[in-house]
Amino acid sequence: MNRPRRLLRPRTLRARLTVGLVVLLAVSCAAVGLAAVVELNGFLTQRLDEQLTQAGIRFPESLEHNGRLPDDRPQSRKDVTGGTSLGDEHGDTRRMATGTFGARLLHGTVTHKGLIRSGDPSADLDVDVTARDARRLAAVPVDGRPHSVELSALDDYRVVATAGRDGDVLIVGLPLEPVEATVHRLELVSGIVFGLALVVTGVAGACWVRWSLRPLSRVAATATRVSELPLAGGEVALPTRAPDTDPHSEVGQMAAAFHRMLGHVEDALTRRQAGEERLRRFAADASHELRTPVASVRGHAELALLHPGPVPPEVTRALHRITAESARMGEMVDDLLLLARLDAGRPLESRPVDLTRLVLDAVADARAAGPGHRWTLDLPKDPVTVAGDAHRLHQVLANLLANARVHTPAGTKVTVTVETDGEQARLSVHDDGPGVPEDIRPTVFERFTRAEHRRPPDATGGGAGLGLSIVAAVVEAHGGDVGLESGPGATTLTVRLPAHGTRGSAHGTFSTG
């Protein structure tokens, strides 16, 4: 029931305004037409009542006396030619209109009746009056006022009942058919004229509304283009503003306010982009400048450990810690420098890379680093090739496997799967560990996101939270995407890259560790 109503309901503002205009005009036309019909019907009925009053009771009274009135003298009934008048033997029809009906009732029974038909000046005394018509005539109030009566044989009549001289009731009436015909013709003409007016108004109103709402349509088109822009990051160029309109109209005021808002948004985006550029340059410059002193610190620590002389154990442990932390700091600086370069949009090397070979090498390295885990491979028999930077893709694989190794306890099964459909290569790393906490899943690929409570108790050290962000940045630079599905006992990280090679048709499963 509700769906058809929704389909019939106009949805656009243009349609609503047009429909509203047509509906208002239709209501106005209906009101004017109704008032005209009612007024004309009343006017014509009043004229008919005046004719009844002028006719009097001469015709029905003459029906009882065969065309003579009680006070008529025989010589008065002769015309100048010596013939009888029109009233002789057929009722007095002088000055009576066509369709005049007369009847005499005595004690509620119709004793005489007559009708003046068209083309016949004499009265027709054989009018068919049914018993139902007789009851209706008897029910007419004898008050000398016009009343409407429906006669089955004669249609609707306007009649007047008057008391006769002999205790009878004399009724004279005129047909309502001319009044009804005139009123019906007015209704037909009004319907045709008002219908044409509604059609013309609908078409003209639609054009007028469309022309009036052109500024609003331009604003809507501009807003649509703005909504399709990637405003989350990078340089954003807002579309050209819509032309200015009349500032005194509501549409013009709305367009002016929208343009001011776009100006503020553009200014904010420009400032944000400038801030991101400054931060990116700072990260790149800082990372570049830190590489030398970090390498120098590490080199001095390693040189001190090679000193041949006796060194206290505490100093030896401190030098080992300096070496390890400087190495970790060097890796962090390299990661920040890589992210800064990727953010700057520097292109990566693009060559055919055997993804299957990269997976084999990366899993071998992960098995050596985490012998307590069970490593499983699910690879196609045919090599899967993608276009990209082999070194960076190897870094993606190393980070994914390190994430699975560091954040799951010993004995966890980690499965690496590679497959392709000819157009896209799909690499997934699945583990049956405790899963990623729900509170950090939305930000797991953002920088410096860490989940220390997910790390097993025997894990040593700690990352900077850049591993998965590097994965996302490198994969995005290759035109791919990365996703996460995690729950207790099942975590899967999936990387999708554009394929460049043959489609894998069969898979083989290998287990290491």
Features:
alpha+beta, six-stranded mixed β-sheet, 14 strands, disordered C terminus
Shape: rod-shaped
How much is the radius of gyration in Å? 52 Å
Average per-residue pLDDT, rounded, comes to: 78
Biggest beta sheet summary? 6 strands, antiparallel
Helix share bin: 40-55%
Provide a descriptive summary of the structure in words.
There is one protein chain. This protein is an alpha+beta fold and 513 residues long. 48% of the residues lie in helices and 18% in strands. The protein has 11 helices and 14 strands. Strands 3-2-1-6-5-4 form a 6-stranded antiparallel beta sheet. It has a 6-stranded mixed beta sheet with strand order 12-13-11-10-8-14, with helices on one face. A two-stranded antiparallel sheet has the order 7-9. The model is unreliable at 67-90 and 502-513 (pLDDT under 50).
Describe what is shown at a glance:
48% of the residues lie in helices and 18% in strands. The protein is α+β, with helices and mostly antiparallel strands and 513 residues long.
SSE blueprint and pairings:
Blueprint: H1 2-8, H2 13-55, H3 58-63, E1 101-106, E2 109-116, E3 123-124, H4 131-138, E4 146-151, E5 155-163, E6 169-175, H5 177-212, H6 214-227, H7 250-305, H8 313-343, E7 351-354, H9 355-369, E8 374-380, E9 385-388, H10 390-406, E10 413-420, E11 424-431, H11 467-477, E12 481-487, E13 490-498, E14 507-512
Parallel strand pairs: 8-10
Antiparallel strand pairs: 1-2, 1-6, 2-3, 4-5, 5-6, 7-9, 8-14, 10-11, 11-13, 12-13
